[in-house]
Amino acid sequence: MKNRLQPLTDKEIQTVHDACMQILGNTGVSFKAPEAVEIFKRHGVRTDGEKVFLTEKQVLDALKTVPEEFTIQARKPINNVRIGGDHFAFGPAWAAPFVIDADGGRRTGTLKDQENFCKLVQTSPYLNLVAGSMAVPAEYPSEEADTRTLAACLTLTDMPLISNPCLKRNGQEMARMASIVWGQDITHLEHPVSIVSVNPLSPLSYSGDTLEGLMAFAKHGQALLISSMVLAGITGPISIAGTAALELAESLSGIVLAQLIHPGVPCVTGGTSCASDMRTGGVSLGGPESLQLVGIAAQMADHYGLPCRYGGNLTDAYSINAQSGLESALLMLAPVLSGVHFIHQSCGILGAYAATSFEKFVIDEEVCGMIRKAVTPLEITAESINTELIHRVGSNGSYMMQPETAKHCRTAFFPSQLTRKSTYEDWEAKDNGNIVGRASEYVKKRLESYVKPDMDPAIEKDLSAYVEKGK
């Protein structure tokens, strides 16, 4: 039987590749920054105004310098994260403009929200990275907001960093602030300390601001997550195959630019493309088409030897309900089973990226933990099977009181913090299945138990002075 998580045959992989090369060579991609176009020109790439046309050889030659896997360095080395190969990582919600509270009310984000999300990440057993702008502080101008959210990440956690949006000032500021923390120019470190999301402007375009950001982060040797969000039927073809080829062409063209700037800089391909709701013109993240796109992207990334990004605990719903649960779980499980290496937006998203939620964050954490447990290889040995135990219990006995059960009862199975396994009477008497209420209480518990990670007081003082100076 065909592996349904790998939808493409070898012939179909070649067909997608050929289509992608035709798009890059014949249609071209618009790079709306003269400096970027000049970089292509200096390397013999054909251009026409802002339009860049890449040959198959130019693409494949550039991809040879992209590492198949890489490390993002954390302030605390034990938290370093490996991306690519057999490794996969979970990152939290990022850049949503609103917060939805437990009562369902929607509001703009605050710096306090960002700080609390940082504390949840720091205390998370399942997340691998922290992110700037998990909440976007509306009380500050955008530049100051980015500075303060980044400072929160660096001081309140010791996790690897997903940087603020891909802008030149954010690339430069991340380098300055991280260099204060690491005590040296981060460009000279063995590994990047951050990864930034670089988003093409579909169809087949990169904005000037995004390109300036890409160039800034690449020059500092920071990892680049170059992925499109093509809306099938609106910013891409209505066919899933066509949208997948367009998404791939957009991503590969950005990766080529990054390698021309800084050969060997880590890059991740993929996307977050989805169907459109043709009745409203809106996004349809939670449809089965998203799962089809995941499989294609993962196979094409593997074909090129590139790390891949896709998926997340994503939903179109604006509240924590059955819709958000089923969409989120499907869009998290499919990428992991398909071999995706980086799952962005793994915790907290509601409303198709429009909002974050603290309660959704901790519920999504459970999904992350369950999935990681489910795909962890089992120990299949004579000792783990233990036929002697099975023989001892026999046909009608119980394993409950066996010493092996007592020894492993607290560690053998997934320790859910939020789901209930009880009788109907117990369920009805306690909270009638109110997972939002339980999640809200769990958020409070986590925030109360948070302990700030150690940082040299002199470094923290210098970082604070930098933030205040930039106001």
UniProtKB/TrEMBL annotation:
Keywords (A to Z) from UniProt: Methyltransferase, Transferase
Gene3D superfamilies assigned: Trimethylamine methyltransferase-like
Organism: Desulfotignum phosphitoxidans DSM 13687
Family statement drawn from the similarity comment of this UniProt entry: Belongs to the trimethylamine methyltransferase family.
Top-level enzyme category: transferase
Enzyme Commission number: 2.1.1.-
A GO biological-process term: methylation
InterPro entries according to UniProt: MttB-like_sf, MTTB_MeTrfase
Gene Ontology terms, MF aspect: methyltransferase activity
Name the record gives this protein: Methyltransferase
Source organism, top-level taxon: Bacteria
Ranges annotated as spanning the membrane: none
